[in-house]
Amino acid sequence: MGRAGSRQIFDPGIRRMEVSGLRINNERAVLTAIATTPGNSAAEIARTTGLGAQSVSRIVGELETTGLVRRGEARRGLRGQPATPLYIDPNGVFSVGCEVGWRHYHILIRNFTGEVLGEHRRDYAFPDIDVVFKEIGSLARLLVGLVPEEYRSRIIGMGLAMPSGIGRNIDLVGGSADQAARWSELDIVATAREASGLEIVRFNDGNAACWAELAALQPPRPANMAYFQVGTFVGAGLIAEGRLWEGPTGNSADLGSMLVPDRSGKLDFVHLVASLHALESRIAGAGIEVPTGN
Fold first, then answer.
1. Rounded to an integer, what distance in angstroms lies between the CA atom of residue 24 and that of residue 278?
2. Which domains does the chain have, with CATH numbers?
3. Would the pTM count as exceeding 0.90?
4. What is the C-alpha separation between 217 and 240, in angstroms, rounded?
5. pLDDT tens readout for residues 193-232
6. Where are the extended beta strands (E) located within 8-93?
7. How high is the pLDDT of residue 6?
């Protein structure tokens, strides 16, 4: 991971923008302030965001009505009026997350505070198109059942992270030409939606990992960052001026496909030189058996 420059990317302070997006921006600022500083009062949130006290009071009331925010017990014994701490309501929103990788899939469900309610991981030799979506769909429905029935309308869908061109390299991990052709032709979002019964938002796995890494860092977070995920192959993501650089294809970084010199000085794709797949190939070339799976 490389960095350049730093600032608070998740700064809840308001930003200059068009009037049409101001309401959403203000709500996002208040939610961000509550999430990053749980227990702060409305007055403290007003100071953090730069919004007026009346605006914050109105927004908090609306967020509380929609079930996204809850109030704690008022703090007494201090100067002035008792301060009421504000918290994200864990039952405000639920979401399913799923990663489909070259050697495994991992699926889980979280509440609004990030608590994992349930999860499952399976390792395999390669992502079999006849197995992956069938199992993910079944598991997604089981995970949804972990959410109390009165809150299931708050499940917003499933985020699906996977390599953008999974059909291109599946032969390198043991998949057949038929599997490669079917992956290349598959409408992944529609297939996952039908299997799970959930709305699907698809992400490139390198981009998803890049943004997760940024979110996990302590402030001040870098405003510009190059991220490499070394696994079976090499995924990557770019942060530029605090934004994930996806481009029109959702895979604009694609640093995992850049050319680098191998041991002999010949240029080759980085994922064929420095990855777990490359390591496995060298082990096999030395006459040592490589175990299947993860």
1. 47
2. 9-88 (1.10.10.10), 94-207 (3.30.420.40), 218-285 (3.30.420.40)
3. no
4. 16
5. 999 999 999 999 999 999 999 988 887 889 999 999 899 9
6. 69-71, 86-88
7. 52
